[in-house]
Sequence to fold (69 residues):
Amino acid sequence: MVDSPTLIAPAPYVTVALAAMITGLTEKAIRRKIEDGKWLEGREYRRSPDGGIFISIKGYQQWVEQAAA
Fold:
């Protein structure tokens, strides 16, 4: 029997821990950007209904590109 390949779709929002692995920033650096207001809710991150923080990969990419411009 041949197993079908597992399809993985990229998630638009990821946990702080996963965002740290993807971006190379530390979890502390990500949380500090949120606390200091450098990242805005609804643009670089969102809160889940239970209060968890999820980072927007698209928002992060735009933030990096804006900083480089």
In short: The first helix runs from residue 16 to 23. The chain is about 40% helix and 15% strand. The first strand starts at residue 13 and ends at 15.
